[in-house]
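This section describes the prediction task in plain terms. A model, or a person checking by hand, is given the sequence of a single protein chain and must write out its three-dimensional structure as a string of tokens. No templates, partner chains or ligands are provided. The sample shown here is typical of the held-out split.
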Amino acid sequence: MSGKGMAGTPLHIVLTFDDGFWAPAYATMRSVCLFTHRRTDLVFHLCHRTLQPAHKADLELIAQEFGATLKFYDLDNSSLFSDIAARMPENKRLSNIVYARLVIDRLLPPEVTRLVYLDCDMMVRDRIERLIEIDLDGRAIAAVRDTSGAFITGGRDLLSNRDLFDAADPYFNAGMIVIDVAKWRAARILETLEQALSDGVMARIYYDQDFLNLVFKGQWLELPWRWNLIDARSVHEGLDPAICHYTGETKPWAILAGTLRSVAFARMYRHIMTNRIFYAFAWQRWKRWWQKKLGLK
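The expected answer:
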């Protein structure tokens, strides 16, 4: 798993988020920077929506602090993304920003041939180049098996959608994906998506994660669990995870200290986010909660 590339070779990382998740995106990027020596090789491709100028300025601090490169892609100005997002099943918890990763190959410049996609509810604790530069063994992507895969696809009896998924087949979590861009493009994802929409498949499945598992069924490289520790809790800290994925209800950016005892590396995450960003994000979430409670939003 050790990186084979030379210093100076760009390390491309893609994140997708809207303005409500600007601070976790900042923390994810900063964790990547802190846990590699190749900071000036990092190129973050930030696919975003509704990003306030002040929050964009916060994200740009990553470039100032570490010498990394940031490239911004405003999805609100992308007719391709807007068309897809408008026709996809709506994910009220995650927002339709999740579908942005389906068009990664259309958004990024042609010189990007290998990348790592990361969800923004992650903290990286190992050298990101070890992921970007792995041998994909001819596969289009590499990912980590999702511990809840059979339940996600099969429901309570694990038998739903049997014409699409088999519980015996490995199922990956799409929060971290290593991507060979040429092979990703060759999979004709958008064409397959149109067919899935026409056939009614998209209405039956768990958004883009299920869809990607259908596209790359039997054609993805399974990575060790430590590269995407799902629902990362404090009991996992001694296992030395490389990437903590905070999929549980309690997040490391929660305000109440008592709720953080079950979250892996919560104190470390707080310092990575920095106090200024942490409290600005807390205020934003608190304000939105009250606006919703009072029916103002």
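For orientation: The mean pLDDT is 90.
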